[in-house]
Design a protein that fits this description.
Two copies of one chain form a homodimer. Helix content of chain A is 71%, strand content 0%. Chain A is built from nine helices and no strands. Chains A, B: Residues 37-56 bind DNA.
């Protein structure tokens, strides 16, 4: 995801580039990738054709940058300081609650903007798939680190596998989001996350 | 999903229509919807332009029929007689094992063909979203029925909620499939399904 760094841009240039990416991500969330043309993005961002070409030479370059930008943006949203480090049962429940609330506020439209990019692009080409995998890996690492800390601290039993639990938490989140997005109701996301967290809790040292 | 029934076709016509749908579903799984043009489908199915138009007047009509066809085909694959009715812990584990094996055989390419359609089309228009929701509902009903039978039989405790557990099982499946497809490895799907089934098992009457 090298495109995310563009050191040769001025700070104004970086701001323009970020604005274009934000606009592109929003349009894609609303219309899908196939329904979003580079010229729609250019118009919505209010930049000229030559400016657009300066930052993104074609749709493929733009999509690649949107993947990296969306991975970082999703991660930032979900790791706001008030959510903590996902390294306690309480933090996991807060994270699940805030994930559910965010979708409810948006009436379940758009789902996970990163997962949605993945669903649309995963079979397009090997490089894009690798970029998407790198985005998911950032998430997995966040869960793994938190779960490992919980096991090291003795909150989780020794047999708890942070790797396996990280997959289960991210899987529940992605599947729950797609189902809630499609069915336009809260239950699939809420119940998927609750089940995954209940499973983590079942591995607590002091499990009653 | 009315398009799935076409009573006015002859048996030969129905076979041709089904062949076109199978070819379209395969191409879409490989290239995505945006990368699949109606003329590619026509050529791959070996039908003439006028035949194609006879069955599917445009890409939209074709995609709508592919959704219904894929929902039924996915359901048929997962409810083969040897898998039983998903109404016991054993049947749920067999279903999870066979889901994992099928993905492994395909080297995790394509993911869930129905979930993948959902990911690509969910924000396209309200009617398409309703068709996708109907497909997921067929799945949910299958899980709910099995879980309800388990509760009625006394395998699951009274407080077990078949509705919530059905969402958790389908969520784990969809999320696990998307992650395994993107990361091209078995763990996300296997661990997501294991966690969801372990949660169902934690509600067993004779939970040790």
């Amino acid at each position: 995801m090298a495109d995310v760094k563009t050191p040769r841009l001025t700070s104004k240039g970086r701001a323009t580039r970020a604005r274009i990416l934000g606009v592109a991500a929003d349009l894609i969330a609303k219309r899908g990738i196939a329904g979003t043309q580079i010229d729609d993005v250019r118009r919505a961002a209010g930049v000229s054709g030559s400016q657009m070409t300066h930052y993104f030479k074609d749709k493929r370059t733009l999509i690649k940058a949107v993947i990296a930008w969306q991975a970082q943006s999703t991660l930032d949203t979900h790791t706001r300081p008030e959510l903590g480090h996902l390294d306690s049962f309480e933090a996991l429940r807060r994270w699940a609650g805030s994930t559910v609330e965010r979708q409810r506020e948006r009436a379940f439209e758009g789902g996970c903007q990163f997962g949605s990019l993945a669903g649309q692009l995963v079979e397009s080409d090997a490089e894009t798939r690798a970029d998407l995998a790198a985005g998911f890996e950032q998430w997995l690492e966040l869960f793994r680190k938190g779960l490992l800390a919980m096991r090291d601290r003795g909150d989780l039993r020794r047999e708890a596998d942070p790797e396996a639990l990280a997959y289960a938490l991210l899987g529940a989140m992605q599947g729950g989001l797609l189902l809630s997005q499609t069915l336009r109701r809260v239950e699939p996301l809420r119940d998927s996350l609750n089940a995954a967290i209940a499973h983590v809790e079942s591995l607590a040292t002091s499990n009653p």
